[in-house]
């Protein structure tokens, strides 16, 4: 699975759907938030530290001192673990791009998936959306169907050309499958062969309906419409259970307990999101329009290598009050002072630096005259430190 945003949520939804059907899933994702082992899920379970260390040492010994990147050795360790434990499905998320990604060594996958493609990692993938789309399209395999989220015009043109070149059937959102919100808040999915009425996704955010639909399109293809279905007996009753049981930390996650939550007065809410590019910020801003019952306050930290202005442009003005922080332990973090300056530039009228997340929350609580909703956002690295501090 490749794309710019939504990969993690779609992977998590797919895993939940398969596990709800009683099937075992190997899953490889990145980056981790708190523990390195989060990257490798072996038939549903995270490896212990000794197990993970043994895998990495075995791969390092086999490599024999040859040049290898951090991500490559991690990927090899994951594949080694997967090969030694039975499972019905293996779900792989690319680390960066797709064409040259270490995960892109599977010659004949059952299916490939492309989530929405947007500008990110330009220094590695290119400064134009067409170049980034071409790198992501590199996961397509000749004759293997690809489930594709709705794309912008330029990215879609690149994907269409690549699919034609390789004879790849594209299963497109908005053309072959659709999702809409039911009157009760549930999700209605319609694909080439089915229409499913399901509960609302467990993950918060209107955009999760689209991520869920992408995962459901994969299930439909693998169980219903593929020439030779890989899971012809997939139980439809598992879909509702799976949709309700998805867990994926730091994606519009409400924190309901822990030391940081304890800093809040009654009636306040604390939310966490690790999105770090303009496309992610636009999705958050769109969802924030539905948050009308309480003022929205924020704690913001981001890497200086990211498109800071692109991230803040759709989102900064949504905050009634904002405190900016440097990401602990990250040399490439944007300073709290520069973060506040950037937020002010994008019409956040009360943006000030704070020395830490804890201090920022305390300041926001002191500034609030009524219960508010606090969103911590800007970076997966910041999200990881928050989850660690709140555990």
From TrEMBL:
Protein name: Dihydrofolate synthase/folylpolyglutamate synthase
Domain Mur ligase C-terminal intervals: 267-379
GO function term, MF aspect, one: ATP binding
An individual GO BP term: tetrahydrofolate biosynthetic process
Domain Mur ligase central: start-end pairs: 2-217
Domain of life: Bacteria
Record key words, sorted: ATP-binding, Folate biosynthesis, Ligase, Magnesium, Metal-binding, Nucleotide-binding
Organism: Paramagnetospirillum magneticum (strain ATCC 700264 / AMB-1)
Pfam families for this protein: Mur_ligase_C (PF02875), Mur_ligase_M (PF08245)
